[in-house]
Amino acid sequence: MERKINYWAIAVFYIIAIICRYAAVKTDLLSGISNGYLVILLRGVGPALGAIAAVTIFSLPNKFSLKGTYTNIVLPFAVYWILPAFLIAGVYYFIEGKFPILLMFTVLVYGLLEEIGWRGFLQEELKPLRTLYANLIIGLLWFIWHLNLEMTASNLIFLGIIFFGTWGIGKIYNKTSSLLAVAGVHSLNNFFRNGLHQTELILIVVLLAIWIGFIIFYDRKNKPKYDLDSSNA
Any residues with CB less than 8 A from the CB of 47 and at least 6 apart, and which? Predict the structure, then answer.
């Protein structure tokens, strides 16, 4: 039987996500917190809280998975977290002369908090829809959640990036079902808070190429034997 979309669960998820985001970026609620890294995490915690609340309240079968289709959690952790953290920390050291270890951890966890909501919950809930429609809904809700709604040129570019990211990260999630994987990809742009320059763009391209190649290789290597037998028949 085809699973139906629980729109009430989606509404609960999104209301909580928006309230948390608004409190974090549009009020002075976090002004008393001196730890800047904690402030960053609190700005992104809404989608995770909303997802967990919706799944719990409505007893949904959704199971948030860090490892996804991988045999153990070590592999996606190494490929999607340790690898980019190592390479990006090296770039930071080359540019600024220091290793931003705490920043690496914060940005990756921030990406995970968002991805628990956008992919782990919302994309799962919208699976009965055609992929195009699901991506449009996720992209629009994700853009609004940032609460940067002025129709400026930069925001319109950001809207385009959001829709492209929804499509790209969504495909990786469909392939891996791993929240570690999509959190790593999600965090890629957030690592470079001072903008993207030639070195950073090259690093992003290299990491994306490695990840896409790894996904293709892993998928082929672990393709069920009966699929290979049928294709050779």
Answer: 13, 17, 113, 114, 115, 116, 117, 118, 121, 145
Q: Are 81 and 181 in contact (CB under 8 A)?
A: no
Over residues 7-26, the pLDDT tens digits come to: 999 999 999 999 999 999 99
| Residue 120 near residue 179, CB atoms below 8 Å | yes
User: What is the number of domains present in the chain?
Assistant: 1
Instruction: Fill in the amino acid letter for 28.
Output: D
Quote the pLDDT of residue 2: 67
Half-sphere exposure of 125 (CA within 13 A, CB side): 25
Token pair in block for residue 163: 């829709």
Range of the domain at 214: 7-232
Residue 1 belongs to a domain = no
Q: What is the H or E stretch that residue 144 is in?
A: helix 131-145
Q: Half-sphere exposure of residue 76, counting CA atoms within 13 Å on the CB side?
A: 25
Query: Considering the domain boundaries, does residue 83 fall inside one?
Result: yes
pTM here? 0.89
